[in-house]
Write a structure and sequence with these properties.
The chain contains 13 helices and 26 strands. The chain is an alpha/beta fold. Among the domains are: about 190 residues, ANL, N-terminal domain (Rossmann fold); about 110 residues, GMP Synthetase, Chain A, domain 3 (2-Layer Sandwich). The strands form five sheets. The chain has a nine-stranded mixed sheet, sandwiched between helices. Strands 6-5-3-4-7-8-18 form a seven-stranded mixed sheet. Helix 1 packs across helix 3 and helix 2 packs across helix 3. The protein is globular, with a radius of gyration of 23 Å. InterPro entries: AMP-bd_C, AMP-bd_C_sf, AMP-dep_synth/lig_dom, ANL_N_sf, ATP-dep_AMP-bd_enzyme. This is Class I adenylate-forming enzyme family protein. It comes from Cohnella silvisoli.
């Protein structure tokens, strides 16, 4: 990541007034960002943080995130970027992590400190960014020693407890040519948390190019529109669920799609067919790129909207010299068209899981990373995902991938969103249960009729064993920190409902 730090310094020298980072309240030029990052280095040194030490970072999207990111590169420390959803951690979790990593410092916000009931007097320093006056520290640019070569960030916990992932900082150096011909920076809006690998990589790319990072502090489509209009946003990086909420909000208020936005990249889950249909109705000048990747491997495939017609359902072809294999349960490579686990070979792969060598050896097989996603390649090398390996439902000996059923459910009249999970059944191993959010609320009698209608629709489109055993109507589909459906929470909700009768 030293390339990001170098790029910030280069643009600070060339065009110090150029806008570097913006949020709802603050704008930092490259000159100011460069100086503040240096003063954070001075603050680290006065706190006794030395090269190779760990620093815990629990920050939401705000300009200070970028300041501290650049400072950790220059100070040669190991940053542990913790998920900004405090629901994933307790105070004890953070204290234990600090002890195991020998971290001397936690950088967070006042609100997070209160929610976690942390105290500034403890085994490590706790700094709230609102209270740190970096101007009082020396403008320091420490020489790189190579001791803090790693960056650690935590998964969203989609399949269990969040896992820390060690990635060498060098994989974020995109080796972009120095672009001295950019007259006016383009403004790029990042909506998903910067603690996610995809968002952090995008932010690094933007700064390396001398463009402007605009970060959304709030998960609120109205606030996004304010930023888009105020800063003439050219590019937006967001998740599919964010995109859907934004389009819903635009439709509800009768607003037009902003003309300044020319490119949107979605990260996280692949776009659904229903969402792609809505996107086709957006202005012709808009380019939409669907990027598939994982925390462990980084970006894997991408596909642009002009390819959708011929490759419906695909998440694209491999990028950046990446190799994909589809592997069966016996670790044998499968031919085109056959479903298996997606394995990825890439120089951008993680080094290891934090404190979990067993999980590391299970995930990293030779030069490949096992993604845990099931899918297949076609004859042209396009990847099609079927769902998570751990989400697969086994019903009376048949395999059911929830994504296939969910896509059908979303095509049913009146269905806004759908999630399918498997629950234990004493005779059939598992049964698929559908949670559905309707476009309009119904009374009990209408719900019963709608349930029969939806199940009949599924029977007309799916093999009988794939049809959900039951349909639950919910007001909202719960999302995890990554913006993906929280299947564990839905399963727990079902258990509580059954226990209460």
């Amino acid at each position: 990541m030293d390339e990001v730090s170098t790029s910030v310094a280069r643009w600070a020298a060339k065009d110090p007034e150029r806008a570097a980072v913006i949020d709802e309240y603050v704008t930092l030029s490259y000159g100011v960002l460069n100086e503040r990052a240096n003063r954070w280095v001075g603050a680290f040194q006065e706190a006794g943080v030395t090269p190779g030490d760990g620093v815990l970072l629990m920050l939401p999207n705000r300009v200070e995130f970028i300041e501290v990111l650049v400072a950790t590169i220059r100070a040669d420390v190991v940053p542990y970027f913790m998920n900004s959803n405090v629901a994933y951690y307790s105070a004890k979790d953070i204290i234990d992590l600090a002890a195991s990593t020998n971290a001397r410092l936690l950088i967070t916000t006042r609100s997070f400190m209160r929610e976690l009931a942390l105290h500034k007097e403890g085994p490590f320093w706790v700094w709230c960014v609102e209270e740190v006056d970096v101007s009082k520290y020396p403008n320091t640019r420490a020489p790189l020693t190579g001791l803090g070569t790693d960056i650690v960030f935590f998964t969203s916990g989609t399949t269990g407890t969040p896992k820390g992932i060690f990635v060498n900082k060098s994989v974020f150096n995109l080796r972009l040519p120095a672009n001295s011909h950019v007259i006016e920076p383009r403004h790029h809006l990042l909506i998903k948390p910067l603690t996610f690998r995809g968002s952090m990589t995008t932010a690094c790319n933007i700064l390396q190019e001398g463009n402007t990072v605009v970060v959304a502090r709030q998960s609120n489509p109205a606030k996004w529109m304010e930023l888009i209009e105020r800063h003439n946003i050219f590019f937006i990086n967001l998740g599919p669920s964010d995109f859907m909420r934004w389009l819903d909000d635009l439709e509800s208020i009768g607003a037009k799609f902003p003309s300044s936005v020319k490119h949107i990249m979605t990260i996280g889950e692949p776009l659904t067919s229903a969402l792609k249909s809505r996107i086709k109705g957006l202005p012709a000048h808009l380019q939409v790129t669907d990027l598939y990747g994982t925390s462990e491997a980084g970006a894997i495939t991408m596909i642009n909207d002009h390819e959708w017609a011929g490759k419906d359902g695909s998440c694209g072809r491999p990028v950046f010299f990446i190799t994909i294999r589809i592997v069966d349960e016996n670790d044998r490579e499968l031919p085109a068209g056959e479903v298996g686990e997606v394995w990825v070979k890439t120089r951008y792969r993680m080094r290891e899981y934090y404190g979990d060598p067993a999980a590391t050896s299970e995930t990293c097989v030779g030069d490949f990373v096992r993604t845990g996603d099931m899918g297949f390649l076609d004859e042209q090398g396009y990847l099609y995902l079927c769902g998570r390996k751990h989400d697969m439902i086994k019903r009376s000996g048949f395999r059911i991938f929830p994504v296939e059923v969910e896509n059908v459910l979303r095509e049913a009249r009146g269905v806004e969103d759908a999630v399918v999970i498997g629950i234990h059944h004493p005779e059939r191993m598992q049964e698929p249960i559908a949670f559905i959010r309707l476009s309009e609320p119904l009374n009990a009698e209408s719900e019963a009729k709608k349930r029969r209608e939806i199940l009949a629709f599924c029977e007309s489109r799916l093999a009988r064993y794939k049809v959900p055993a039951w349909v639950w109507f919910v007001k909202e589909i719960p999302l995890n920190a990554a913006g993906k459906a929280d299947r564990r929470q839905l399963a727990q909700r079902l258990v509580r409902t059954n226990e209460s009768g």
